[in-house]
Amino acid sequence: SRIFHEATLSDVEVLEALYAATARPGAELVRGVGGIAEGVPEEFGEIPSLPKFRSDGILLAHAGGGAGLFSSMIGGWVNGEMGSNPVTVEVRR
User: Fold this and answer.
1) Cβ within 8 Å of residue 21, ≥6 positions away
2) Which of 4, 52, 67, 77 might form a disulfide with 22, Cβ 3.0–4.6 angstroms?
3) Position with higher pLDDT, 53 vs 47
């Protein structure tokens, strides 16, 4: 939490940076590229930038005090209509 505060980044700016950093050109993700059998269908190769996550697919939550500097990503969470909605609760002592 301290890092975000010191960087004076808004949650929107952090999310925009994460979406930009995780997008890749479709040509890099086509099946068979680089000898990797998995990938997207060939027609996706023409797309300049394929997102890793849906536009509402990243939940940004930060917590903690001045120590620690820990971060984590939880992959594979299906939210929205097909999945579940995460719930966060502030914990104070």
Assistant:
1) none
2) 52
3) 47
59 and 86 Cβ atoms separated by less than 8 Å: yes
Helix extents (H) in the chain: 2-7, 11-22, 26-29
If one counts the domains in the chain, the total is: 1
Domain membership flag for residue 93: no
Q: What pTM does this model have? A: 0.71
Q: Burial of 19 by CB count in 10 Å (0-12 exposed, 13-18 middle, 19+ buried)? A: middle
The phi and psi torsions of 34 (rounded to 5 degrees) equal 65, 20
Structural domain that includes position 34: 2-82
